[in-house]
């Protein structure tokens, strides 16, 4: 028997030429994609499509086209479909299932379908006028969590640990602790900037701007996640950054693999995630174990802890929330270190890309306009009025700085869309305005890029105009008291960077809008204020351009800046 088996095996091996191997791999991959195709939701024919159509050939062309053309497709759809916002859609045409011509649907405020990466279903891009319709569905019908889970392959990349507990904890605890966190964040920002940009007042230094932001943001952000000591631990920070890189890279790779192969491929691809998580765990474990012990003693009424209060950071909030909910399984260092992962991921790269974009926009603006000096005048004035220590009120008076950040997030967006939702209700959802039905498993998104560059919403939409949102706020502030009224005050206040709307989607919108944005506003203002106060930076000749792969931005990470410490500031 053994002889027969070994003879069959050797015959098989002999017949396995390279050509045959490539053929088998090709047929296997195509079959996997065909099986994938049958799992994907079917969208009504009445929905206009961009890209190369939905036939077999068109679908294959879309898979390749996705890498280079996704943004163009969405742009094209926005122009064709949404330019005439709020015009009444012609639902008779839709219910008859008639395919509209370009000329017809360009005049309608219509949803359209954009092709996606091979393993993902195509997405329905919902027009701006229907933002509220999309975002007001309960989570059990249209889910944010499930769309993030699929987009980032959470089950593999975050080891199947559900991300809702830390997200709910952030929603509950961050805002109420924000004011008390400001002095620590200010401290961390100045320490991190000094360490990154140096204190030499004589010589100009050439520095890679991306690396510089990576030297600042992880430390400053971690002040509110793991506290004063661990936020300076370079090994901990380095491995969280590496973990976030793993997630972005692996999501892209897995998007290109057929779904039925993912259970075999993903566990291998995410090995670096495991390694980088383990290294963060090793560093944070002593802190978490001590905190768990101290908070337990305090709760038990140990008199030694009467005067003791835990540091306010995410580790404390997770422990507090777990005690409040009676979730004992949360109360160990390994689990808490895994709970940190989704928040670190949501917080670090988003802020680094945003900070990087702000400086690129400011430094490449015409120096004759004096934007940097105008910002510095504002931050010096407000900091001086507070005696050198930032407060919530002083930060909220930085209208120009706020506007320069918001404007950069508008014009230099880092994703085509940041609001993705998945239909999870068995019966799907129906859009009554346009008359289409999206079955279970459909993906819907809002078009951030198109909205932020819409000339009907923003004058000169492609120009970086840092004080676009502050001019009105400053003008209102300067008015005599008798010309001010509460409604106008609210309107101008809503020009601030933390206000989300269907016109400004950088933090998304609705009840899942980024809970970290109030912190980010403080963090970025503190960083910019310290930087401008203490350093001179040479302008850039032009705005370096990013690259795009599908929906993923590759920022211009090799840009260098010339920087020197101002005299008399050390
Ligand atoms: C400039 C920096 C940031 C940007 C542009 C940003 C943007 C976003 C966006 C677009 C979402 C998705 C919301 C949705 O799906 O509708 C989000 C979610 C989230 N962000 Fe941020 N974020 C930033 C920084 C932060 C920071 C610093 C933290 C934490 C300290 C944070 C914590 C979160 C969390 C926990 C969620 C999940 C919210 C949920 O699903 O309910 N973010 N963020």
TrEMBL record:
Keyword vocabulary terms for this entry: Heme, Iron, Membrane, Metal-binding, Monooxygenase, Oxidoreductase, Transmembrane, Transmembrane helix
CDD domains (alphabetical): CYP503A1-like
Binding-site residues for heme, renumbered to this chain: 514
Species assigned in the record: Lasiosphaeria miniovina
Transmembrane parts of this sequence: 21-39
Cofactor: heme
Protein name, as recorded: Cytochrome P450
Molecular function in Gene Ontology: heme binding; iron ion binding; monooxygenase activity; oxidoreductase activity, acting on paired donors, with incorporation or reduction of molecular oxygen
Family label: Belongs to the cytochrome P450 family.
